[in-house]
Design goal:
Blueprint lengths: L3 E6 L9 E4 L4 E5 L11 E3 L9 E6 L2 E6 L6 E3 L2 E2 L10 E3 L4 E4 L3 E3 L4 E3 L2 E8 L24 H4 L3 H69 L2 H77 L1
Parallel strand pairs: 3-4
Antiparallel strand pairs: 1-2, 1-13, 3-5, 5-6, 6-9, 7-8, 7-10, 10-13, 11-12
Length: 305
Amino acid sequence: MTSMAILTCRPNSHPFQERRVLLTEAMKIGRSVARARPAPNNCIFDCKVLSRNHALLWFENSKFFLQDTKSSNGTFVNNQRLSKGSEESPAHEIHSGDIIQFGVDVMENSRKVTHGCIIAQIHLYNPDGTEFKPRNGMAPGPPLPLMGPPSVIQIQAQDLYQLQQYLQEAAHREQMLENKLAMLQRVMSETQEASQSSWQALIDEDRLLSRLEVLESQLQAFAKNQTEESLRKELVALQEDKHIYENTAKESLRRIFQEKLEIVTKLSDTERTCSNVEDECTHLKESYEMSQEELKALAAKHSDK
């Protein structure tokens, strides 16, 4: 016969099917990739927070061991991490009934989605089919000294850890309920805003229709009061005004264009004058330098004489 491990999903875990794995050799625990797909007889999980090679589980010398193989999000036994991030842990002995956690919950900021980790209770069985000793299943020893009431002495660390798990699960459910309540409140607020906007749009539409009716009435009254001849005369007057405005605008544009041409001509003359002045300054500077050199030469001759 062969040793076996059974992993049962905890309520606060990323959901997975119960696994029954035979430990004929070291069993790899990791994320589902390519051909490595989840199955009831392996430890491959369809969970994004796990590494591809997350941990190893094996049976050796009548003991069961678990080792973290440089995973990113860590491996935990009874809420204790086996190693730091991306570091391989030493082999850690585990017992039947331990709570094992692979990875941690990770929130994706882009979509505000939380990816859960794998949390399982493991039951271990020896090759002869008997269950491996639990962490609190110690061999009988000398009687303990009376330190308090028997009920206090009999409380085991495993019971305390299970109580802690229950409290964490209750807190997780409470947090989920709070999130749902907040979402419902947000939806209610958005619904109220949409209802208010719809009501305001309906009121605005009624006002607009009333305004259109008033304008149509005024237009009909105006059409009755005005004869066709008067409308024709007013149209002719409007066309004459249009021609006057067009001619005025054209004259203004022509005058502006003429002024622009004059300014461009003056600018060209000014640039040409500046160029001539610069040339003259350059010539005077050269004459000055030649005069300075002649003066120096005359001073040298004078000194010699």
